[in-house]
């Protein structure tokens, strides 16, 4: 076989990438019975599968997705087939179809186009913990098994599609990124209320996914083309990556025991044109579509220019760069509003919390979470570092518990990078990591975590030389951190700078330098800023008054997200 030199991602910007249409509804047309295992069709009716793939390639699809939608250990249990067998056969059938259609094209004197095979990976079919009983690691292992089989079989890229739970998809993406070098496309589905089944809205889905090192993201199945347009436009508004849309031919209806779809080819093509003009880069169909839909789509894009084709990728990356953290259902964008990061889940100086942690009493933390959110905190810092306890386990448990009682995004605060890594991995969202600093060792341990899990990170302005003596020194540390992050592929929009303040009891200029640094950092680098403002008053009387006054000055200087105690009304009202 000829070495494939081109990757599917090489097509970005050169042409609109055309996917295939439905596989499931096509198989039903060719005799797949209700309750029959679609993956078995790869063995019982290989000609049908090849025929469907061929029809899509002939229609002009740049890639087809393998018939492996339900190909995981859980769904195949008892079928007599292994994941490895099914994946190998399914990739083989798609590859055969590609070869045959290319030969046809050659015979017609046409130079065959590149035909890619996407390894289709879909939800496992069990709900993730804590709602269901599927642990993150088990989901990861099942995805890993599929992905390794796909790589062995020679798939060109991994195509996660129809995901309804962003957490399950995170497990899948990590399994792909940690076990292969193939490009990864991610496609999720939304319900009529504009949210995924497990509650993520489009912004949240994009924010969690797009910094995980994937190559494209989008939406499939869900609704009909018309209803999908609104959601797709939200995805386009936030995505720094090429966007994919594969709608159904309308919403399925059952008529006389048969599932029918109401959107005809013209209406489908019209809706796809609107999406292409809005900027999508990858277009195809899902349930109810067939090769005729795809052929019409291909014809409709011929010789046309679309935003995705003339996109300046670097410009988009900068334009779409927002600083945002997410829980699974809620995203906080650090924009021009002030966001309070609640600091109360931190044992420093808190006897009751220390005792609760030692007693493994998580209800204390839950209550602290609820009261801080009620008081106006929009992000919660979680620090459970205490020498007497297992911080690693406690951090994971605290994140689970807090996530179950409040929906704000979390900030992982630990001095132990293993705790930070585990928290970033298992968090159902996109966390803020607290923190990295300008020391070489800190950047070398924290940036790989930030990169791999697509997190945001607080950058403290200190380094090997200690705390900066003036604003200039703070600025040069910020510069060093931003440049080093860039070398790891972490955009500055994911860095929130903490200019750190010392107590003015030790140094009279400390406060003024910090304020000047905040102003300059924002102006010079356009990054967002945070600050634990209460340090200013350590060792001094009238702490609240001093803290509040300094907080007001810092906000005046442009502080975006103070780390503070929202239960002190004087701070929240400032
Ligand atoms: N920058 C960043 N992260 C930070 C800080 C910062 N994390 C920790 C800290 N500073 C912010 N969090 C706290 C938590 C507790 C207290 C202060 C800041 C605190 N506790 C009281 C004490 O020590 O006396 C007890 C208060 C109480 O009992 O309620 O002050 O600057 N990035």
Q: What does this molecule look like?
A:
The chain is an alpha/beta fold and 574 residues long. 44% of the residues lie in helices and 15% in strands. The chain has 21 helices and 20 strands. The protein has an 8-stranded parallel sheet. An 8-stranded parallel beta barrel has the order 13-14-15-16-17-18-19-20, surrounded by 7 helices. A hairpin with a 2-residue loop joins β8 and β9 (258-260). α5 (83-107) packs parallel to α6, α14 (362-374) packs across α15 and α18 (471-487) runs parallel beside α19 (510-525). The model has no long low-confidence stretch (mean pLDDT 95). (6S)-5,6,7,8-tetrahydrofolate binds at residues 343, 346, 348-350, 413, 434-435, 458, 498, 530, 532, 534-535, 563.
What descriptive keywords fit this protein?
20 strands; 44% helix; eight-stranded parallel β-barrel; 15% strand; 574 residues; 21 helices; alpha/beta
Using only CA atoms, what is the Rg? 26 Å
List the bound ligands: (6S)-5,6,7,8-tetrahydrofolate
Major β-sheet strand ordering: 1-10-7-6-5-4-3-2
Distance between the termini: 69 Å
Biggest sheet character = 8 strands, parallel
Tally of DSSP β-strands: 20
Count of DSSP helices?
Answer: 21
Residue fraction in strands = 15-25%
Mean pLDDT: 95
Principal-axis shape equals: elongated
Going by helix content, strand content and strand pairing, the class is alpha/beta
| Helix content class | 40-55%
**Unreliably modeled segments:** none
């Amino acid at each position: 076989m000829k070495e494939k030199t081109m990757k599917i991602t090489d097509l970005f910007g050169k042409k609109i990438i055309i996917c295939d249409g439905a596989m499931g509804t096509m198989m039903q047309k060719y005799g797949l019975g209700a309750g029959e295992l679609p993956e078995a069709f790869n063995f019982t009716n290989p000609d049908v599968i090849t025929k469907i793939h061929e029809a899509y390639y002939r229609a002009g699809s740049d890639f087809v997705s393998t018939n492996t939608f339900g190909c995981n250990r859980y769904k195949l249990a008892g079928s007599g087939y292994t994941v490895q067998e099914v994946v190998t056969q399914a990739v083989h059938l798609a590859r055969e179809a590609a070869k045959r259609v290319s030969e046809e094209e050659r015979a017609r004197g046409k130079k065959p186009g590149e035909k890619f095979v996407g390894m289709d990976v879909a939800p496992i079919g069990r709900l993730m913990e804590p709602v269901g009983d599927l642990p993150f690691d088990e989901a990861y292992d099942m995805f890993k098994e599929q992905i390794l089989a796909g790589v062995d079989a020679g798939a060109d890229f991994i195509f996660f599609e129809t995901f309804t739970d962003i957490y399950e998809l995170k497990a899948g993406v990590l399994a792909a990124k940690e076990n292969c070098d193939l490009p990864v496309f991610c496609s999720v589905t939304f319900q009529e209320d504009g949210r995924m089944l497990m509650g993520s809205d489009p912004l949240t889905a994009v924010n969690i996914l797009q910094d995980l090192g994937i190559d494209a993201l989008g939406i499939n199945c869900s609704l009909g083309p018309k209803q999908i347009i609104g959601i797709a436009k939200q995805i386009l508004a936030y995505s720094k990556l090429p966007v994919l849309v594969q709608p159904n031919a309308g919403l399925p209806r059952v008529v006389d025991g048969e599932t029918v779809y109401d959107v005809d080819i013209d209406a489908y093509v019209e809706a796809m044109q609107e999406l292409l003009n809005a900027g999508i880069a990858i277009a195809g169909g899902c349930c109810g579509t067939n090769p005729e839909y795809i052929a019409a789509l291909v014809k409709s894009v011929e010789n046309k220019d679309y935003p995705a084709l003339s996109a300046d990728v670097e410009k988009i990356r900068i334009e779409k760069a927002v600083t945002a953290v997410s829980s699974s259902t809620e995203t906080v964008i650090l924009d021009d509003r002030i966001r309070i990061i609640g600091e109360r889940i931190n044992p420093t100086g808190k006897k009751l919390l220390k005792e609760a942690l030692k007693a493994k009493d998580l209800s204390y933390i839950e209550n602290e979470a609820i009261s801080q959110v009620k008081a106006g905190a929009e992000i919660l810092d979680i620090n459970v570092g205490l020498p007497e306890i297992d911080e690693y386990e406690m951090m994971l448990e605290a994140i689970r518990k807090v996530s179950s009682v409040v929906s704000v995004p979390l900030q992982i605060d630990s001095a132990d990078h293993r705790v930070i890594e585990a928290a970033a991995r298992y968090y159902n969202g996109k966390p803020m990591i607290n923190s990295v600093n300008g020391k070489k060792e800190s950047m070398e341990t924290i940036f790989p975590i930030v990169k791999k899990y697509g997190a945001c990170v607080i950058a403290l302005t200190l380094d090997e030389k200690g705390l900066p003596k003036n604003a200039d020194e703070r600025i040069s540390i910020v510069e060093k951190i931003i440049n080093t992050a860039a070398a790891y592929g972490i955009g500055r929009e994911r860095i929130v700078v903490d200019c750190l303040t010392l107590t003015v009891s030790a140094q009279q200029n400390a406060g003024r330098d910090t304020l000047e640094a905040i102003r300059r950092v924002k102006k010079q680098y356009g990054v967002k800023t945070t600050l634990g403002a209460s340090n200013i008053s350590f060792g001094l009387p009238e702490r609240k008054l001093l803290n509040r006054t300094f907080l007001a000055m810092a906000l005046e200087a442009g502080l975006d997200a103070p780390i503070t105690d929202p239960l002190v009304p004087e701070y929240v009202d400032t």
